[in-house]
Design a protein that fits this description.
Shape: elongated
Strand order of the largest sheet: 64-65-66-68-67
Radius of gyration: 54 Å
Number of domains: 5
Number of helices: 6
CATH architecture of the largest domain: 7 Propeller
CATH superfamily of the largest domain: YVTN repeat-like/Quinoprotein amine dehydrogenase
CATH topology of the largest domain: Methylamine Dehydrogenase, Chain H
Structural class: alpha+beta
Distance between the termini: 151 Å
Length: 986
């Protein structure tokens, strides 16, 4: 018995040893998502020797086969064909005094100045050694500093001169750095700083031994120079003293880059890592040798652009970019092997658990921020058995299942800071005892510590975990949605939600051992689809439902609001829903991870890194960062929505064409009217996600509203009308941040010559001259007519009047002769009367013809004169306006109105037997009104009279365009009213 017990102890020791041995998993570091650009993308070479970003945000890349400019969409290349002195580029810098002017150092070709698209070459001598430019720097005064093999030069204006190194350094190979607008030289362990006031080099004592050499330098953004040493130290020298020093753990720092935000990027022979500039503490390691997808042959150029993207040069892999430093991939398990498509969960300490072969894999970040992994194995579990993480319940228990095992096992997690956790076995549920046979579809534990086990067609088994007793089966008879429950959730009110394979949603009251049905939801209640795949209750208590074929829905009141591909989603299949603290939901779909705004249900700009069709599980840990798994790796995206520091992308207009002819977009543009088909090209500089950049534009002069965002980088305006136009465009980056200031271009389209001001002015002058001539001609004609009227009036008065007077006098003389018979005497009297009447008519005609009588005032006086003559035996009144009537009237007006007036008075004298007559004249708003009223016998309104007196009156009024009203009644007198415009063509 004792021997048997001792044997058992030995067996247990050996087994524990093997267990611990199997529990150790080889650590593999995370890989950051580098993006590469090669000759396939348009670079002239895959050997990158220089990287620079100019003030307009364009990226310039120097290779061993020419210079290239990258605008986010294409590479524009320059070589010796374009004027470069040599295609091997070593360094690039921009003049601070002349933005847009670049200085490009070359091998054997000296330095090139690129200004206004033209290259100018500066050579220091005939030999190639002095023209091998290693570095180019431009200080604030515009002086260009050049470092050749063992010499220094400077350029001021167009003059190149040699600059003397410190004493004793002649012929020694040294490196030149620029910090605080000052040159620094390093050679071996020696460091010199140029003193501008004295014009001398000053030796800076760094306390380094002669065995230590300077391996790299970089300017500090807050002042001073960072120095890397061969012993692994990094020091900060400011002015003349060392103010900070710390050691790295990864070898000699060859490249150092200060991001200006408290971190250094350091490149050694083995890796790239970041270091805290205040503590010297390594923050993160970025391996690039062991893991695929990382650069393996980094060359000296390393740069941070204006969006804080990291750019690296390589010898053979082209240009490398790292945009998302907080997104990295952790390969799972052994290289080349895939893990089961197991679900994964994250505990409250930020450790992620996923199934693996032979055990459960735990992934966690250590104290340096490097993600480690540890495989937890279990006694009795085969190394090839596929293990699955099924659930992490609210009590913190990890529930796992193993292929071929009839048990569901819970483990208590005991976490340790920066280390792997310990798993302690807990509750075990056995198939056949606690739940029936069937396919395990899902596990769920509610707040009452009851386990719900979906076993396909058998229904849902309910187990009391406190007593480990089965409580029964929930089937379609008690309201379970179909025979395959895929997802469950208990909301804040304690209501249990069950989602069926294709039968909608059931809600249960948890207050009984077997929860009782409260209600169901299906398509008729607003669900887009009855195939339920995910639930989520957000921070405000709103319930969200993911479906297999209908997109996502949220419950508002008693109805569902939905969003699908019709509303801009990438997919209608929603497997998982989670949220972060920025009101955004993350959806695991068939095509990757979708992000939507929780309040509007609208998609937000997608990140290409999240579009992975192999995603198995997804979560937002502590609402701080996103994680998701595939069968080969874990991806962690720390602070995925921290976009507050996003730099607005600058927008540029770089091309303007009119009718296919290229014009200079930087100079004033005036186009003829028949060159009105315009094409404008533009770009927006954002390198975080170049393909996601969108543009909005408007053309002031035709419309003031911005267009909808578009990916197009050119716009065509056809058949523009003459006028002045201003084109404006803004760029919008992947984080939906727009340019702070639009790029603008103003141009004008000139009208045709017949619409030009000078042509219109000439035509106006001609028309004015013609009008003046016509006016003068008309005035002369009117004057001639007046003169004619005066002459005719004078002739009538002098000649015809005299003759008529002679006839009257002769008839009166002859009438007195006694020898005449009564008949002859009567004839002579009649002749006298006719002559007298004709004489009076002639006087009226002369009065009308005389232009001196063309005023309305003179016309009224004439009317008074006639009234006094015709109404000698009848009382009358003549009312005229108090003010003088100075309006001019035409001769036809005077004639027709006078004849109407005279005819009316004659009718009163001959036929009315009136004793009183009232005459009124008035002038209002250019209308002349005459009213004649008598108290005679009158007549019936429809009575006809012999003669043509009244008919003539009406006819004359109609000819003048006036209105004649005759109102009379038997025994009540007669009223005649005439209204006529005094300027009428009477």
């Amino acid at each position: 018995m004792h021997h048997s017990h001792r044997t058992l102890q030995i067996f247990r020791f050996i087994f524990l040893f093997l267990f611990l041995l199997l529990s150790v998993e080889t650590v593999r570091c995370q890989v950051l998502p580098f993006q590469s650009y090669t000759t396939r993308d348009g670079l002239p070479s895959n050997t990158i020797r220089a990287i620079y970003q100019d003030t307009r945000s364009y990226l310039w890349i120097g290779t061993n086969n020419g210079l290239s400019r990258y605008d986010g969409a294409k590479f524009t290349n320059y070589s010796t064909v374009d004027g470069l002195s040599n295609n091997w580029i070593t360094s690039i810098a921009e003049s601070a005094k002349e933005p847009g002017t670049l200085w490009i150092g070359t091998i054997a070709g000296g330095v090139n100045r690129l200004r206004d698209r033209r290259f100018t070459v500066f050579r220091s001598g005939p030999d190639n050694t002095s023209n091998n430019i290693q570095s180019v720097d431009v200080d604030s005064s515009g002086t260009v500093w050049l470092k050749a093999w063992d010499r220094m030069y400077y350029i001021r204006g167009d003059s190149l001169s040699e600059f003397a190194p410190p004493y004793g350094m002649e012929g020694v190979r040294y490196s030149l750095s620029f910090a605080d607008d000052t040159p620094w030289l390093a050679a071996g362990s020696k460091l010199f700083r140029y003193e501008r006031l004295t014009g001398r080099w000053r030796r800076i004592h760094t306390s380094a031994s002669s065995r230590d050499t300077i391996t790299g330098t970089a300017p500090c953004k807050t002042g001073g120079l960072w120095i890397g040493w061969s012993n692994g130290l990094i020091t900060l020298v400011r002015d003349t003293s060392v103010i900070l020093s710390f050691s790295t753990r990864y070898g000699e720092p060859h490249l150092i880059l200060d991001d200006g935000k408290g971190q250094l990027w350091v490149h050694t022979r083995k890796m790239i890592f970041t270091v805290s500039t205040s503590e010297g503490r390594q923050l993160r390691i970025v391996p690039f040798v062991e893991d695929a997808g990382s650069p393996a042959d980094i060359t000296p150029p390393m740069m941070l652009d204006h969006e804080n993207n990291l750019w690296l040069g390589t010898w053979t892999q082209g240009l490398m970019k790292l945009s998302d430093r907080n997104l990295y991939h952790i390969p799972i398990g052994e290289r080349g092997k895939t893990f089961p498509r197991s679900g994964a969960v994250a505990d409250s300490n930020g450790h992620i658990w996923t199934g693996a072969r032979g055990g459960i894999l735990e992934l966690y970040a250590d104290s340096t921020g490097v993600w480690q992994q540890y495989l937890h194995t279990f006694i009795g579990t085969s190394p090839n058995a596929e293990c699955y993480v099924s659930l992490l319940d609210r009590a913190g228990r990890l529930w796992i299942t193993v292929d071929g095992n009839r048990n569901i096992q819970a483990y208590k997690i005991s976490s340790q800071p920066w280390k792997q956790s310990q798993l302690t076995p807990g509750v075990r549920l056995t198939r056949g005892k606690h739940y029936p046979e069937g396919v395990l579809l899902m596990l769920f534990v509610d707040a009452q510590d009851r386990m719900f086990i979906s076993v396909g067609q058998a229904g849902v088994a309910v187990v009391d975990l406190k007593r480990l007793t089965p409580l029964g089966m929930m089937t379609t008879g008690v309201g379970v949605p179909g025979l395959a429950v895929r997802v469950m959730l208990q909301d804040r009110q304690g209501i249990i939600w069950m989602g069926g394979w294709n039968d909608g949603i059931s809600l249960f009251d948890p207050g009984t051992p077997l929860p009782s049905l409260l209600r169901k939801y299906a398509v008729e209640d607003g669900l887009p689809d009855n195939s339920i795949r995910s639930f989520h209750e957000d921070c405000e208590g709103t319930m969200w439902v993911g479906t297999r074929y209908g997109g996502i829905a949220r419950l508002v009141g008693k109805r569902f609001e939905t969003a699908s591909m019709n509303d801009g989603l990438m997919s209608n299949t929603i497997w998982t829903i989670d949220e972060d603290e920025h009101d955004r939901l993350y959806l695991r779909t068939d095509v990757g991870i979708e992000r939507i705004d929780r309040r509007t249900m609208k998609p937000v700009p997608q990140k290409l890194e999240l579009l992975d069709q192999e995603i198995v599980s997804l979560g937002v840990l502590q609402r701080r960062f996103l994680w998701y798994t595939s069968s080969t790796e874990l991806t962690v995206y720390e602070y995925p929505l921290a976009s507050g520091n996003t730099v607005p992308p600058p927008a540029h207009i770089f091309s303007f064409q009119a009718n296919g002819k290229m014009l200079d977009a930087g100079s004033p543009i005036a186009l003829p009217f028949n060159e009105n088909n315009c094409v404008i090209e533009y770009d927006g500089i954002s390198y975080k996600n170049e393909k996601a950049v969108r543009y909005q534009y408007r053309l002031l002069g035709t419309a003031s509203d911005w267009t909808a965002p578009t990916a197009q980088r050119a716009v065509t305006f056809a058949t523009l009308k003459p006028g002045f136009y201003t084109f404006e465009v803004v760029a919008i980056n992947a984080d939906n941040v727009a340019s702070t200031k639009p790029a603008s271009l103003s141009f004008s389209i000139l009208p045709p010559y017949w619409q030009r001001w000078w042509f219109i002015a000439i035509v106006a002058l001609v028309l004015a001259a013609v009008g003046t001539l016509l006016y003068r001609y008309r005035v002369n004609q009117l004057l001639e007519v007046e003169r004619l009227r005066v002459r005719i009036a004078g002739d009538l008065h002098d000649d015809v009047g005299t003759n008529l007077s002679s006839i009257v006098i002769a008839s009166q003389i002859m009438e007195r002769q006694a020898s005449l018979s009564p008949k002859e005497r009567s004839q002579l009297k009649e002749i006298g009367i006719i002559a007298t009447t004709t004489q009076e008519m002639m006087r009226d005609i002369v009065w009308m013809l005389n232009p001196k009588n063309d005023s309305l005032d003179d016309f009224v006086l004439k009317m008074k004169e006639v009234t006094s003559q015709l109404l000698q035996d009848i009382r009358y009144t003549f009312v005229v306006p108090e003010e003088r009537l100075l309006d001019k009237v035409s001769i036809e007006f005077k004639r027709n109105v006078f004849l109407i007036f005279k005819e009316s008075l004659n009718n009163i004298v001959r036929h009315s037997f009136a004793s009183e007559v009232s005459i009124a004249v008035k002038q209002e708003n250019g209308t002349f009104t005459l009213q004649i009223e008598d108290n005679g016998k009158g007549f019936e309104g429809n009575r006809t009279f012999p003669g043509s007196g009244l008919a003539n009156i009406r006819r004359r009024a109609l000819q003048m365009g006036g209105a004649m009203d005759i109102h009379s009644a038997a025994g009540k007198g007669t009223t005649i009213t005439l209204s006529v415009k005094n300027h009428a063509n009477a």
